[in-house]
Amino acid sequence: MTVADPRATARFLGAFFDELAKWGVQNVVISPGSRSTPLSMTAYELSCRAPQRMSTYVDIDERGAAFLALGMAKASGRPAALVCSSGTAIANYYPAILEAESSRVPLIVLTADRPPQLQGLGAPQTCDQSHAYGTHVRAYRGMPLPADDEGSLRFARQAAREACIAALGSCNPAQNQETQNSLAAPSAATARASHRLAGACFGGPVHLNFPFDEPLKPDVTLPDLFDAGIPCAESAADSAAPGAKPARKPSLPVGVAHVHGGMEGVAAAQLARELLANSVLLLAGEGSCATHEEAQRVLSFARTFAVPVLADPLSGLRSFDDPLVIGNYDSVFQPGGISPDEALNPQVIVRFGRYPVSKRATQWARAREDEGVLQVVVDPLETRDTNAATTVFVRTKPADFAQSMLRMEDGPAAAGANDLSFANAWQRVEEAAAKRIAAVDTGEEPGADGFEGAYVRRVLELAPEGSCLFAANSMSVRAVDTFYLKGGKQLTVLANRGLNGIDGTVSTAIGASRCFGRTTLITGDLTMQHDLNALALQRELRVQRQLADAAGDENRAPKQAAKRNSCETNAGEQGITIVLLNNNGGAIFDMLPQKSQEAYFERLFLTPQDVDFQAAVAAFGVPYSKTATLAEFNRAYRASLDVPGISFIEVPVSLQGLRERYARYW
Question: What percentage of the chain reaches a pLDDT higher than 70?
């Protein structure tokens, strides 16, 4: 029987985690277990020695832990790592991995395993973990047993690099950690340009499976724990003998070099002429842009070509008060996606990102295909065209496409020649819809105190500039879509729209909140109940605040200007307010074909649960308030913005009559 060498295990994993940090992995979420001891202790040791490079979080529920990491990665654009033990623990990651795959979020999944000699022999907590996630991960690697010979240490680092490369895909996160530490704080303008406005990612999950023999506890006391296996190009200059010619240090930062390229040449010129010669509409879904700078490129394209932009709430573009940004199109289209006016129908539709949250907008786009409208899809990976209507597919990032069109010789020069009547028609219906929707915010609408939309509008009005709004699926994200008026303030609006599931929503929002000073989660009761144990993270957030306080201000000051870009916000400043719109069931089915007066409808679809959320929240030590009016909600929400960690506001609304409440806005 083989026996592990604690020093070799520590050095092997020290090289691995050091390389992850160099390539931009800043957060590791650990679910405790015995077999994963080597991974957990090594990651923890790095976070203790260099907290500015890596942070560790502990979540005892693997399912929630995976969504916590997903939220961090989605909000920052950087890969987050997961650590768990063997056996059923790895299966609990599956829902978040599926969401990460569909939403293209970079996750690095590190699972511990029994050594080869215990496989297939009935050993406890042992199963075949190779390729456990099948085709749902971008890459899989079965790691060898740890060793500390030079070749093994170099391999450990290369395995970490390969994991980051696969997870990042075409993502363009902020500079890697090592480069950040060597640079002065960016200017306010630079920080604003790179600040993430949306959750656009182009990566995905990867899986590395680590077998470990006993003893499991690594020797993390080694002074050179994180220095082993460093390539000669990085270490030679530091180890040169006195008087010897200094070795050249690499001038390029460690990490993925992203080469941005849009369309060029004849194809680009031909498409630009087509856009200039026709009425064009841009469907901007999740994935349209990630940063303020990318959003500005998209808007410059829209202005140059006189293109109305139907901006999904997850696109990041509703933060801009631009006349061409159309935010209330869902209230313009009629049921079934019918256009109320032929003047609103374009000759060309360009789509950035996935189809919008609005089903009516997707149906409307499908109907235009029947009319022979040219449909151009811009995406670096795939069309994601459930309408099967793609005429032209441009394989590039939307911001790069916009820049390519602006570079065309005739583009900017022809801006004034465009027919503005099409854009003006959209602006008129947008203004009318916005007035109708804004009326709910006054509180003077009949029944406003019992209407979900009024509370969503209040959140959108009161949420701090630069904060995050996370929308649960089902009715919550649809309410945000309806009542989010453009241009009020800069908000980063996120949701798990990859598979549109309700599981892990609270954990994901808490993960995302680590990248912002303040975050608000809007959710319904079934989604809240499904991930109720995420409230146990209240203790972990308190631990993170204590660690930040212990570290002192000297480690945080240089990064304040860019702190929101990469999950580096001072933990003492952070908090998340959960706004629960509690209709005691699945009210969305009141608007779906399943609706019926028969008994099956309540039993199988409305499913009232009668949960005492006040008692449930109290069990986790989370501050709670319940509001029955908009005035009470205003006070409770404003007060919550000064509370660190998690706070909770419950707003009871009716399970019945949802369709009637929304009728005038839809």
Answer: 86
Give the Cα separation of 542 and 305 in Å (integer).
Answer: 50
Q: How far is CA 243 from CA 234, 235, 250, in A?
A: 19, 17, 21
Residue 93: is its pLDDT beyond 90? yes
Give the C-alpha separation, 568 to 652, whole Å: 35
Q: Do the beta carbons of residue 456 and residue 522 sit within 8 Å?
A: yes
Task: Single out the residue of 476, 439, 1, 12 nearest to residue 210, CA to CA.
Answer: 12
8 Å CB contact between 510 and 538: no
Query: What is the model's pTM?
Result: 0.92
User: What is the rounded CA–CA span in Å between residue 525 and residue 416?
Assistant: 51
Positive or negative CA dihedral for 414, 417, 423, 424?
A: positive
SS3 assignment, position 259: coil
Q: Are the beta carbons of 164 and 25 closer than 8 angstroms?
A: yes
Looking at residue 401, its amino acid is: F
pLDDT of residue 659: 83
Closest by alpha carbon to 152, among 214, 228, 250, 223?
228
Give backbone dihedrals phi and psi of 502, rounded to 5 degrees, phi first: -100, -10
Categorise residue 312: left if φ over 0, alpha if ψ from -120 to 50, beta otherwise.
beta
| Cα–Cα distance for residue pair 525/527, rounded to 1 Å | 5
The residue ranking higher by pLDDT, 175 or 6, is 6
Beta strands in 357-398 (DSSP E): 374-378, 392-394
Residue 311 dihedral angles phi and psi, to the nearest 5°: -95, 110
Spell out where 292-347 has E strands. Answer: 309-311, 325-326
CA 303-282-456 angle, to 5 degrees, is 100
d(CA 522, CA 480): 9
User: Is the CB of residue 353 less than 8 Å from the CB of residue 379?
Assistant: yes
Residue 188 clears pLDDT 70, i.e. is over it: no
Angle, alpha carbons 275-278-282 (nearest 5°): 60
| Residues 331 and 436: beta-carbon distance below 8 Å | yes
Whole-angstrom distance, CA of residue 148 vs CA of residue 600: 63
Identity of residue 192: R
- State the DSSP H helix or E strand holding residue 84, giving kind and residue range, or none if neither: strand 80-84
Q: Which two tokens stand for residue 596?
A: 């019926």
Per-residue pLDDT tens for 523-555? Answer: 999 999 999 999 999 999 999 999 988 877 544
DSSP string, 477-527: HHHHHHH--TTSS--EEE---SS---TTHHHHHHHHHTTSSEEEEEEEHHH
Give the other-Cβ count within 10 Å of 616's Cβ. Answer: 17
**Cβ atoms 74, 204 nearer than 8 A:** no
Sheet containing 325-326: order of strands: 325-326, 309-311, 280-284, 348-352, 374-378, 392-394
Q: Cα(63)–Cα(507) distance, rounded to whole angstroms? A: 9
Q: What is the pLDDT of residues 413-426, one digit of tens each?
A: 455 456 799 999 99
Say which residues have a Cβ less than 8 Å from residue 593's Cβ, sequence separation at least 6: none
Compute CA 217 distance to the chain's CA centroid, rounded to the nearest angstrom. Answer: 34
Neighbours of 165 (CB within 10 A): 17
